Amino acid sequence: MKRLGASLAALLLVLGFAPARAAVLCKARTGALLVRDACKRSEASVDLVQFGPAGAPGTRGAAGFGAVLNDTNNAFVGSLLDDPLVVPTVATRVLRTVEEDVVSFTVDAATGFLDASFPFVVYYEHPGCTGRLFLAPLISTNQPMFPQALIHDGIAFYPVDALELHPTVSVLTFTTMGSCSGTFTAPDQCCVPAPGTPLVAEGKALALGSFGLVPPFHTDAP
Predict the structure, then answer these.
(1) What is the pTM of this model?
(2) From the CB of residue 127, how many other CB atoms can be counted at a distance below 10 Å?
(3) How far is CA 142 from CA 93, 104, 147, 202, in A?
(4) What SS3 state is found at 101?
(5) Average of per-residue pLDDT across 3-32
(6) Among candidates 212, 131, 187, 159, which has minimal Cα distance to 32?
(7) Alpha-helical runs (H) found in the chain
(8) 164-165 and 199-207 strand pairing
């Protein structure tokens, strides 16, 4: 029941903050609940009515942030997950729909999207770091429904499916040429043969420049 409550709260956040998009809950084969614009063929749409009639209204909570982050040209960056009062001074998280997936990105209002602050790897189904990619995804601490994009040098890697055991044969890391034990591609990509069956989620890679956003970013009330 707690998981359902968190899912419903997350869904309402997307419906309330994202600009003019219809979000639905989708159940993956593993049982994980995901927020999308439309469910994939392998997923089942979840109708919250099936969990029973709505209960009595609860006590009205405090008002949410209800703000979005826009770029210098007033183009939409994302719906704020964090307090807009701290946006000018620290990194903050925003929600943005990419194709049919709702993804959390970490941004700095002054400089734009932020690289991950820790090392991460990207798994691939074929040799030479080719084919489908997979991630051991982060889940936003306060919003467990939303996968967190892992950013490196302007490329965002983000999960689009639930965690499963997937056979993979190569791994992409980011390091120096001297530390690379596989095939090195400047400036810092190292592809290493690493056959295995890790618990990962299928993912996608996106060049953030395709958004066409120009920092600095600023908050706007709804």
Answers:
(1) 0.73
(2) 13
(3) 11, 11, 11, 23
(4) strand
(5) 54
(6) 159
(7) 2-17
(8) antiparallel
